[in-house]
Amino acid sequence: MRNIRACLMHWLCCGMAWVLLSPALWAVPLPQNHPYQVTLRNYMASLTESDFELPLNPLSYDANYFQSEDNLYRTWLITGFYSTPRLEGLRYPASQFTLQTIEGNANRVLIPHVWPHEIAWWAQWNYPGNPYYGNRAIKLRAFVSAAVDMIMLDDAHERGLYRRSDFLGGTLIWLAYAYGVAKDVLPAEVQAAYEVGLRKFFERIEQWGPTGAFGDMDSMALVSMYYTAQAIGDPDLAGRAYIYAGRVINLHFQNGIERHQGGYDASYNGIAIFFLTWAALLTDWDIVVDVVDRLHEVKSHLTLPEPGNTFYGPSHFSSNTSADVANDQWSGSPPRDIGAAMVTDKALYLAFGGRSGRTWAWAVPTVAAMTQAVQRWINGINAALTPLSASPSVWGERHWIRSESSTYAGDYYRPGTYARLQQLLQSQSPLILPLFTRSQIFINHLFDRKVFLSIRFPFYGAIFYTGELSPQVSPIAGFGGGNLSAFWTPSTGSVILGRRRGFQGSNIDRWEEWRTWPVNAMSGAVPDGRAFTTAGYRPSTNDRDYWVQPDMATVELRGRIGDAYTSQNGAIRGQIIFRRRFTADPRGVTVDAILLSDGVDIVSELYEAIPLFLYDSVRQRNVPHRVWFLINEEWTQITTEDLYTDVQQVKVERFNGAVRIVFETPQWVKLGTQWVDGFQSGATCRNLLLDLLRNNGQPVNLPAEARAWYRIVPVLPGDVDGNGCVDDADLLMVLLAFGRSGYLLADANGDGQVDDADLLLVLNNFGTGC
Questions:
Q1: Tens-place pLDDT, residues 318-360
Q2: Are residues 741 and 681 in the same domain?
Q3: Which of 57, 147, 606, 711 is the most exposed place for a label (fewest CB within 10 A)?
Q4: DSSP-derived pairing of the beta strands 531-533 and 634-638
Q5: 699 and 729 fall within a common domain
């Protein structure tokens, strides 16, 4: 009996020790709820370290391959700008990819590499100097990483987690892409099992449908669903992917700009362009090519060049963020903008500039420059091909691809692109220039959607906005209500520019800062400080009218003030309606804004705001900018926030030009406090505030009618009266004031003296603008 007890104790102790020391019994296993998961896990269990062993051999430079300019250019597209897939997946030890490591953590499943497509890319890059092309170990590394992600994500979905089509659409990109590369080294039963998972995810995206919330994220599914159909080789899936692409496009992109959280967002628009351009190059589907074309048409009409190779545009209408379309997200690497230039001519200018900080013709390097860049890149890759210690990640849901590691412009390069870019550069085609820099004159209402009107006359350009805003009440999700979004001239850049901060940074747009909001709108406050504004109005289609003729256009928006978008915490109790009308002709823009009230509300302030763009503190330095008020026919430079009465005109000098704001009758005017973005840009603005009450801040009944009428014109040499035409009236003004001193209206050249030089300036430019 004693021997039996001793044996039993020995067995228990030894057995317990074995259990404690055995990681397999205490590790977290991959879910095995479906047959396909069992098959995938069994296959992973059959793989050993030797299956993943990968000698880190250097790339070689193949001079013969690079004799082709197309080969050289498409390789150059992946050599810089952070667009090369990273090397970690090649450098990790083979043990990191075994099932023992994947299930070897006591608390969580580990994934060998979280972006398997970056590993797979090296096995599909068909370049003679790539020693990893077709490599089985690389393909298995990518496949095992993708299989772990698939099994875990499917399990999470079934537990009610991450059930969003826009999330899954991103993850499926690498799950499908990696499988398409690795498929040929997998046994048939493993292929079948993995394809069960791919189909399941594809069908979930179909069933859940586009979220309708974020156009950029919904667009990811266009890429992933096509990769899925391609990897499986199923034409039916390809047809269904096409149908789903139509659903996304119709929901988000009818107006040529990304719909984001119910409004538009100029910055997130760039991420949508990134994925849609990828899809267009990958699929060549007509509906996707068309939407890329539309997005770049609108983008080109909202991109305004500045003297000094910077570009800006309005962003006041954006739902979430602050940047403009010219400096939107995810365009800092070649895949997007050069890829788009392969899809539509409307994006060609982006290969030559079109974004702040880019050098001229940045995407058309010489053969010598590309050769040096490719050689440096290969040397850099080789220097980085050193082993890493094991570093698997705890599995977690991921759906954002690393934009800086995307290579689709090179992978789906269209032969002849480099030769065409060279030809356009040599011929100085207008297509290489931003739209507003060309000599083209246009009035474009952009698909007749009553959202934007973009105009370019010989001496100026302007952008108007009457579109929708996000339905979000708080935080503030965009400014609109009928706006002159930008007024631009070739010599000044954007003198007037509507901007916002968004609500994703630390410094967001707040009601308390209503006086400084850089948006063309009518706003005010009641005595306790609560504000009201036309800028928050959410218009319907019936509230907007466009009348467009060959040489003139009028835009009108009508609305009311009193809801949570237009009235802070119930500031307005009575009935207030407004109408904002903008008329553009070759001489300038006329703004006619009227606010009508039943007189119930007591208010202390009411202004018409005109947002003056000073500079971008991040990309611009020492921008010349001066503001002058014309009072009693004499110009006074204004630097303070003091209120001036009887202001006849305002002159804004910027860079080497100027713009005038001419009032129908003398106004009370002041400069507001400087406003700075500080989130996605250093945009700095200052409102010109027209005091419509003239009450010195004292509470008064809101009048039955408050009106602001003004005309904005580019300053033309010799245009003394500021009507946009050098004519007899200007000549007469100089003659009548001849010999007088001071910065008078008749002082055409601004030297402080009305003399022969002013007379000559008028005569030499007689008839300009008329």
A1: 999 999 999 999 976 667 999 999 999 999 999 999 898 888 9
A2: no
A3: 57
A4: unpaired
A5: no
Element (H, E) at 202: helix 188-208
Please identify, among 695, 715, 735, the residue that sits at the C-terminal boundary of a domain: 715
Chain centroid to CA 22: 52
φ, ψ of residue 738 to 5 degrees: the values are -55, 130
CB 379 within 8 A of CB 312: no
Q: Which domain holds residue 525?
A: 442-715
Residues 6+ apart with CB under 8 A from 233: none
More confident residue, 596 or 746: 596
In a domain, 494, yes or no: yes
Instruction: Write out pLDDT tens, residues 49-82.
Output: 999 999 999 999 999 999 999 999 999 998 865 5
CB neighbour list of residue 132: distance below 8 Å, 6 or more residues apart: 54, 57, 90, 122, 123, 125, 138
Neighbours of 321 (CB within 10 A): 24
Question: Does residue 333 contact residue 467 with C-beta atoms inside 8 Å?
Answer: no
- Reported confidence tier of residue 731, pLDDT bands at 50, 70, 90: confident
Per-residue CA distances from 427 to 69, 346, 575 (Å): 19, 17, 60
Which phi and psi (to 5°) does residue 642 adopt? -65, 150
Q: Domain count of the chain?
A: 2
- For residue range 211-265, what is the model confidence (pLDDT) as tens digits? 999 999 999 999 999 999 999 999 999 999 999 999 999 999 989 999 999 999 9
- Confirm whether 686 is domain-assigned: yes
As given in the structure block, the two tokens for residue 369 are: 């420059």
One-letter amino acid at 702 equals L
Predicted confidence band at 15 (pLDDT cuts at 50, 70, 90)?
very low
Q: 545: exposed, middle or buried (C-beta count within 10 Å: 0-12, 13-18, 19+)? A: middle
> How does DSSP classify residue 350?
G
Residue 585 has pLDDT above 90, yes or no: yes
- Which phi and psi angles does 724 have, rounded to 5°? 85, 10
pTM over 0.90? The answer is yes
Q: Which residue, 226, 215, 349, 224, is CA-closest to 284? A: 226
Q: How far apart are CA 428 and CA 364, in angstroms?
A: 13
Are 501 and 576 in a shared domain? Answer: yes
Q: Are residues 667 and 520 in the same domain?
A: yes
Structural domain includes residue 310: no
Supply φ then ψ for residue 412, to 5 degrees: -115, 35
Can you tell me the distance from the alpha carbon of 14 to that of 8, in angstroms, rounded to the nearest whole number? 10
pLDDT recorded at residue 294: 97
User: Which CATH number is 726's domain given?
Assistant: 1.10.1330.10
Cis peptide before 31 (omega within 30 of 0): no
Rounded alpha-carbon distances, angstroms, from residue 509 to 213, 479, 499, 532: 21, 10, 10, 14
Residue 83 has a pLDDT of: 65
Instruction: Transcribe 440-500 into DSSP letters.
Output: --EEE-TTT-SSEEEEEETTEEEEEE-----S-TTTT----SSEEEEEEETTTEEEEE---
**Cα 662 from chain centroid (whole Å):** 35
> Do 571 and 697 belong together in one domain?
yes
Domain boundary among 696, 715, 734: 715
Q: Is residue 477 part of a domain?
A: yes
CA–chain centroid gap for 13, Å, is 65
Asked if residue 589 and residue 525 are part of one domain, the reply reads yes
Whole-number pLDDT of residue 333: 65
Number of H-type helices and E-type strands within the chain: 22, 26
506 and 522, same structural domain? yes
DSSP-derived pairing of the beta strands 576-585 and 552-561: antiparallel
CATH code of 640's domain: 2.70.98.10
Cis peptide before 335 (omega within 30 of 0): no
Reduced to 3 states, what is the DSSP secondary structure of residue 43?
Answer: helix
Burial label for 141, CB within 10 Å (0-12, 13-18, 19+), is: buried
pLDDT tens column, 531-544: 999 999 999 999 99
For residues 620 and 316, give the distance between their C-alpha atoms in angstroms, rounded to a whole number. Answer: 20
